[in-house]
Amino acid sequence: xxxxxxxxxxxxxxxxxxxxxxxxxxxxxxxxxxxxxxxxxxxxxxxxxxxxxxxxxxxxxxxxxxxxxxxxxxxxxxxxxxxxxxxxxxxxxxxxxxxxxxxxxxxxxxxxxxxxxxxxxxxxxxxxxxxxxxxxxxxxxxxxxxxxxxxxxxxxxxxxxxxxxxxxxxxxxxxx
Length: 176
What we know:
Low-confidence stretches: none
Mean pLDDT: 88
Number of helices: 8
Largest sheet: none
Number of domains: 1
Distance between the termini: 28 Å
């Protein structure tokens, strides 16, 4: 049985995010040879599925482990556990988005290129949203979309965790 501490769940979740980031950047850079919109859309689809799939898989395993702990050890885990873990998975992306907004407002240097690399799972989507390479070219609507995308780890984790926790087999849904 795995560790029940929330910090352990969060740290393993960060490891999943780093792994997903590496895979997504590999795909982005592999498909970057073409400037075609079709290849960008294919890249967005592939990287999004990988990113969300890895988070959902981690949430599934975490929920299964939590159910085993509750049944075998008769331990009541806190209600906020799922939301807290999901929230911490989105936290780095939210922090980077805030730095991007500060950069857009001239408070820090141009962070847009680094932001796109840090968010490799959506790199080609950002290229579709904004063909520019500097933060000044970002529109307000692009920034709002980027903010919404920072919530993908939270939403993915919470939905997969809750479905698994309630007895719905997310693994069978995920691999159909």
